[in-house]
Write a structure and sequence with these properties.
Helix content: 10-25%
Shape: globular
CATH class of the largest domain: Alpha Beta
Number of helices: 8
CATH topology of the largest domain: Rossmann fold
Structural class: mainly beta
Strand content: 35-45%
CATH superfamily of the largest domain: Class I glutamine amidotransferase (GATase) domain
Number of strands: 40
């Protein structure tokens, strides 16, 4: 993969574990800094962890989309190595620093300089990019836009280092997030080199005229060059249009000459027409003939699209091969969000009736940012379809907040990692899987199920919808307050034929967001208490009710057999639609109530609805 990028674009540092050869104390310290456990372990810009390896990643091609996305992100830091020496005495390095924007965490941002060596042998293998020493680890001396500083560090070159194979890598790192903000090395500046950035979100949930953030194009080489800029609009629906705005004009292609260290600024505008999503690709071409073209995708999704499909499978194409056709068969409009371009926020997710999040077999499955956004979305009444064969294993292995989130939001307990079973049965009477049998191997599916997991419902709001056999479960559905969840502990992409994929997805989407719904539909015709699950129960049960008159105060209270009020669970305005609330079998004073029959009464205005429940001990 290194051959796809020049020395100004991409740098790599390899930290060798002390369990093998070529390790140095600073390698152990850096691995501890990142919290690295299993190896091999790959991080991009200090994050975006990738764990494990195999023949499918030996050439790094599956990581190229991640790298290309990160290369295009703007950085607040400009830096370069202006001089260096590996000759003792007097070995040292000078790093030139300048800030183009204020630092987000100025008190927690560091400058680090590492010595790397190529051509080191351990066993029968030759290794490159091996860390030999960290010669500088200090606070960044500048914090505000416009400030510049030159930092010189002296060090002693190691006696066993081969100077011909050494280089220095300097990087600025935000220790609050561990993100690497910028990097440079001691290689001579190339004659031809192109750098760029695209600021702001590259996917926007808007309609009408959508103006994206600034794009900067840099000549990072030592020679003048001319750059051709073109915009591919073939990914736009009929009636949509797009242009590149540069130098006061707008076009879909133009050329710009740049001297060494000169830049050109531009931005992309897209005009929508109707419901849907569209993508344009801005291509930057250097006429020198040696620099690879770079492409920046810009996407617009109109806010009236019903389903957002989050593509979180790394470089796989499961979203277009398996998920999009199945969602399309349901009749619901949908759009795709590429997770490698960044995590969708809770505000983004809130635009959609349903979020379909597919993890493939990539790690991490759902990171802290993903979980925070999905949690807020579900708490606000959103509906989630999430699938991945190692979600439960990872949450359980991580523990702490990750496992708590798994219990509270996916409403599942992780039981076992690998069932080694590929035929799944639906549950009789279930609104999603009644009469359904699916196979997750062979056929035209992804055929990628190494660890289809066994899970159980975590609480009374969850129910099994697919089983491997009488004692092991593959998927659940759950009510989450005003929201709903369908969670598959295997990869949906592995279902081995398009008919079953379409049938399963259509039924799931119909349950998650019934036909005719808006973002928060399930509007009833009258005030009702649907049911409570389970019933009988001990100690908790989920009470589901429907409200007809959105905005008017609703009261949901529990009474004992003598008609005495024991608990008020709801007493506030509620939106029209379906709601859920959990009763833990306790009264308003927090005391556990005895076994027996209880009545739930929901009231709004002059309307009431009642439900009988049985608490058993």
């Amino acid at each position: 993969m290194l051959g796809q990028f020049d020395d100004n674009e991409f740098e790599t540092i390899e930290y060798m574990a002390s369990s093998g050869g070529l390790s140095v104390p600073d390698s152990d310290a850096r691995m501890a800094y990142y919290g690295i456990g299993p190896i091999p372990h790959l991080l991009f810009n200090g994050g975006n962890d990738q764990v494990g390896a195999g023949t499918d990643v030996v050439d790094g091609s599956v990581y190229a989309p991640i790298v290309l996305n990160m290369i295009g992100r703007p950085s607040p830091v400009r830096m370069g190595i202006s001089s260096h020496s590996f000759v003792n005495p007097g070995a040292g390095v000078t790093v030139d620093l300048a800030l183009e924007a204020d630092l987000e965490h100025p008190a927690q941002t560091s400058l680090r300089v590492a010595v790397l060596e190529d051509g080191l042998t351990y066993g029968a293998t030759v290794y490159d990019n091996i860390l030999r020493d960290v010669v500088a680890d200090q606070a960044l001396p500048i914090t505000l836009a416009g400030q510049a500083q030159q930092v010189t560090v002296n060090f002693t070159a190691g006696a066993g280092w081969n100077a011909a194979n050494l280089r220095l890598v300097a990087f600025v790192q935000d220790d609050a997030t561990r993100e690497v903000l910028q990097v440079c090395n001691s290689h001579p500046a190339p004659a031809w080199s192109m750098r760029y950035y695209a600021s702001g979100d590259l996917t926007r949930i808007e309609s009408g005229l959508v103006a994206f953030g600034e794009v900067g194009l840099f000549n990072a080489g030592t020679q003048a060059d001319t750059y051709d800029v073109s915009l591919d609009t073939s990914g736009l629906p009929a009636g949509w249009s797009a242009t590149v705005v540069h130098g006061g004009g707008a076009a879909t292609s133009f050329s710009v000459p740049l001297a060494a260290d000169e830049r050109a600024l531009m931005h992309v505008e897209v005009t929508t027409a109707g419901t849907g999503d569209g993508e344009v690709v801005l291509t930057l071409h250097a006429r020198d003939g040696t620099t690879p073209d770079r492409a920046i995708p810009f996407k617009v999704i109109t806010p009236d699209v019903q389903v957002l499909l989050v593509d979180d499978d790394g470089a796989e194409k499961y979203e277009s091969l398996y998920f999009a056709p199945a969602i399309g068969a349901s009749g619901k409009s949908h759009a795709i969000w590429d997770r490698t371009a960044g995590a969708p926020s809770a505000a983004v997710l809130a635009n959609f009736e349903v979020v379909v999040w597919q993890c493939g077999w990539a790690f991490p499955t759902l990171d802290e940012t993903d979980r925070a956004a999905l949690g807020a979305y579900l708490d606000a009444g959103g509906s989630l379809f999430v699938t991945g064969q190692d979600i439960g294993w990872e949450m359980n292995d991580t523990g702490g907040a990750a496992l708590t989130w798994y219990h509270d939001y996916l409403h599942a307990d992780f039981v076992a990692d690998d069932t080694n079973t590929l035929t799944l049965q639906g549950v009789p009477g279930d609104p999603i899987t009644d009469g359904l049998t699916v196979t997750i191997g062979g056929g035209d599916g992804a055929n990628n199920q190494e660890y289809p997991s066994d899970i159980d419902p975590h609480d009374a709001g969850a129910a099994v919808i697919l089983t491997y056999d009488a004692s092991r479960n593959a998927a659940i559905r759950a009510d989450h307050g005003d929201g709903r969840v369908v969670y598959l502990a295997f990869g949906f992409e592995a279902i081995n034929n398009p008919t079953d994929r379409a049938a399963f997805m259509s039924s799931a989407l119909a349950w998650l967001a019934p036909a005719g719904s808006g973002v928060a539909d399930r509007v009833p015709g009258a005030l009702t208490v649907r049911d409570n699950v389970p019933n009988p129960f001990n100690p908790r049960t989920l009470i589901r009710y429907r409200v007809a008159d959105g905005g008017a105060p609703v009261a949901l209270r529990i009474y004992d057999l003598q008609g005495r009020l024991v608990r008020t669970l709801v007493d506030r305005p509620r939106t029209a639609g379906e709601h859920g609330v959990v009763w833990d079998g306790r009264d308003d004073g927090g005391r556990a109530l005895p076994s027996g029959t209880y009545f739930c009464r929901v009231a709004q205005g002059g309307a009431t609805a009642n439900l009988k429940m049985t608490l058993v001990k």
